[in-house]
Amino acid sequence: MNKMRFGSVFPLIPLVVLSVGGCRLQDGLTGQEAQQASEELQVESQSQALTSSTVELGTNFTIGGAVEHAADELRTFVKSQLSCADVTLSGHTITIEYGVRTGCLFRGQPITGSHQITISKNDTSDVIVDHVWTDLSNGKVQVSGTAEVTWSQSDVSRHVVHDLKWTRLSDGRMGEGKGDRTQRPLPDAEGGLSTGFTETGTRSWDGKAGHWSLEIDHLDMRWVDPLPQSGALTLETPFDKTVSASFARPNATTIRVTLEGPRGSISINKTTSP
Question: Over the range 225-259, which residues count as b (16 or more CB within 10 Å of their CB) and which as e?
Fold first, then answer.
C-alpha cells in the first residue's frame, strides 16, 4: 500500500515564526498591524491544519488499481479509523459525515461536518484525489472548500492545490484563500519521510484587513523539531510591508531563525531535539 503521509505540522509554522519574532516584528509593523497579522495567521493556519489532517485519510489505498477498488479499500480504512462517523461509498467517491455520534474525536479534537473524497485517477504514473469539505469544524474554526492532491508511484512528491473559506467560531472572523504547494520527503540520507519533509509553494488569502500572501521556499521540516531546519518564508501584508524568516541549523541541537522586516533583521537561536 502506498501512503503519502506528510501530516499537518507545517500549516502552523507561520504563526510560530511570528511568535518567535515577538517585539522585533512589531518594530516593522504598528501595534495594530502586528495584531492583525497575528490574528490572520492564526485563523488561516488553524483552517489549514484542520483540512490537512483530513487529507491524510485519502492516501491509504494501493496505487495502480481501478478507482472503484481503491475507493472501496479506502472506505475500509476510514471506517477502521473513524468509528464515530458515517462512511458511505458511491462509485469512487467516499462521503464521511463526522460527528454523527456524540464524543466524536479525530486526532484528539472534536470534529463535525462533511468530507467527500473522490479517487479521480489511480495510475502508477499519476494519482489524483479530490477533496470537498462542507462545514468541517473542530469547534474553533469552520471550513468549506476543495483540494486536489496528486502524486505518483515513481515521484514521491505530493502536490496540493486548495481553495477554502473559513470562519473563526468565537468571533465570526472570516477568510477565503488559495494555495499551491509541493511536499516531498527529506533525502534518504537524512532519514526520508520518517524523519521529515520539504515544502515549497504559496498560500494567499483575503481577510478582515485585506489581502495576504505567503511564499514558502524549500522549507525542510523534521517531525521532532518545532521549526524548519532550513529554507525561508516571506509574508506580504496588506500594509505594504514584508516580513520574512529564514532558517538554518548551525549544529545538531540548534535552529537559527533570522527575521527581516522594514526596520532591519534579527537572529534568534532555538534549542531543538538532537
Answer: bbbbbebbbbbbbbbebebbbbbebeeeeebbbeb
Residue by residue, pLDDT tens for the chain (274 residues) are: 455 555 544 444 555 555 555 544 444 677 788 778 878 888 888 898 889 888 888 988 999 989 999 999 999 999 998 888 999 999 999 999 998 887 778 877 889 999 999 999 999 889 999 999 999 999 999 999 999 999 887 877 889 999 999 999 999 999 999 999 998 888 888 888 788 889 899 999 999 889 999 999 998 988 888 788 999 989 899 998 888 888 999 999 999 988 787 777 778 888 887 6
Task: Determine contact, residues 144/134, Cβ cutoff 8 Å.
Answer: yes
Q: Could you state, in order of their start, the residue ranges of all structural domains in the chain? A: 10-271
118: its cell numbers: 473522490
